[in-house]
């Protein structure tokens, strides 16, 4: 099952917001974009919160919850901000404690985006 968010980029790039095959759900890289608006501009904590909420909604559409997440991958444009991103991640996953990776990258698709997160869930 492919899950779409309806943004034009899905057809342009050829991807889905998430894909569920059997009991596995892979959520694509998710940023703090809401339509054309960047949520939490200049604030990695606020962006991370928004991203994780967005991932939660996507998982719900696929029949899962954040409790089902077994892996996250966090891409951050400035590793000096790791504590803010980590604090937001812990607010969602402190009791779940999925495997996780955080790496610094040079940039994301828009210069005002500070973090992008992928997630894997198993139901």
Helix content: 25-40%
Beta-strand content estimate:
25-35%
Please state how the strands of the largest beta sheet are arranged side by side.
Answer: 1-2-3-8-6-7
**CA-based gyration radius:** 14 Å
Determine the mean pLDDT.
94
For the termini, the CA-CA separation is 14 Å
Low-confidence stretches: none
Gross morphology: globular
Counted up, domains total 1
The H-level CATH homologous superfamily, spelled out, is: RutC-like
CATH topology: 60s Ribosomal Protein L30, Chain: A
Per DSSP, the total helix count is: 3
Helix-strand layout with pairing:
Blueprint: E1 2-3, H1 8-14, E2 18-21, E3 24-30, E4 33-34, E5 37-38, H2 44-61, E6 69-76, H3 82-93, E7 99-104, E8 115-122
Parallel strand pairs: 6-7
Antiparallel strand pairs: 1-2, 2-3, 3-8, 4-5, 6-8
What do you see in this structure?
The protein is α+β, with helices and mostly antiparallel strands. It has a single domain, classed as 60s Ribosomal Protein L30, Chain: A, CATH 3.30.1330.40. Helices cover 30% and strands 32% of the residues. It has helices at 8-14, 44-61, 82-93; strands spanning 2-3, 18-21, 24-30, 33-34, 37-38, 69-76, 99-104, 115-122. A hairpin with a 2-residue loop joins strand 4 and strand 5 (37-38). Helix 2 (44-61) runs parallel beside helix 3. It is globular and about 40 Å long. The mean pLDDT is 94.
